[in-house]
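User: Sorry, what's this?
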Amino acid sequence: MNYKQLTFAREYRGYSQTELSNFIQGLSQSNLSKFEKGIGVLSEDLQHRIMEFLDFPIEFFNRKISTTIENGNYRKRSAVTKTEILHFETNCKLIGYMIDEFSTTVDWPEFKLFPLNVEDGYTPQKIAQFNRSQLGLNRDEPVRNIIGLLESKGVIVYEIDVIEKFDGVSFVTTSGFPLIIINKNFPNDRKRYTIAHELGHLLMHNENNFPVSDNRDKEMEANIFAAEFLMPEAEIKHSLRNLKMSDLAALKQIWLTSMSSIIRRAKDLGCITPDRYKFFSIEMSRYGYSRREPHEVAIDNPACFKNACKLLQNELSYSKHDFSRFFALPNNIIEKFIFPTTNDVKLKVLKMSF
């Protein structure tokens, strides 16, 4: 058994080593700990009983999930528990694993964006400007259909249904596919900013492309990238001078970004003073906009992962059982990711008489 796969299955199910050993007769926490470190052995009988308890097919332990998640984007990080982070990240790793497994049958779009080395003096602004041009965006053009644009260039986007504390995450899968995962429960303007932020991480902070110093403020750089990517300085700056609250709704509809990010952009570009920025913050809170802004913007839906599922269903007639065997995953995981439940209301045609 691949001990790392056992660790993954245990963590996905939410058990600590002690908790799991308490459920399996003859398994001690110390022996399980040694096994998960790769320095101990467990009998074949124990291995089978562990797999049965965790409800993972035995074939899963011959697969490999080894993705490392470095760029997690958590709102109010101090309020997120280690257990919540672990649960979120195991789900994200599972999505990355399925994308890799799909690649044996599905031809994902080729990655055609351009990472540039921040260690070589390329600024986040310059990297954002260059990749905007690679996406065919004019300098004065907002980023419409942001998900479709990125997926056409080989960045797979997935919306995950998780609690409010998580904005998103980005990483490159074990087989080399760039992936951005965002929280589907957030407003569209926040989703768009999260996607741009995570794109910045993929283009600037992926050590598969070049080494990145640990001393860099990666979150700040990703924020600078996102702001320039969504609201280019050369085009928006003139609109931010003498900014008023009454301007925010129109600017939001033009640039498809939140009011709060427009206010922050005005401050960062020196278009408003710190005192004026404080005034805007107070007003946003007074109107309740710091919790939920008015004037929702549009965003397109991820298609790559969904289309891969449909391809196997329509072209190869895959059932839930077939997907379970294909991924070596239990049915409840297949139902969660491949056949998610929807709130669609089913209607039927009534027989009409004329």
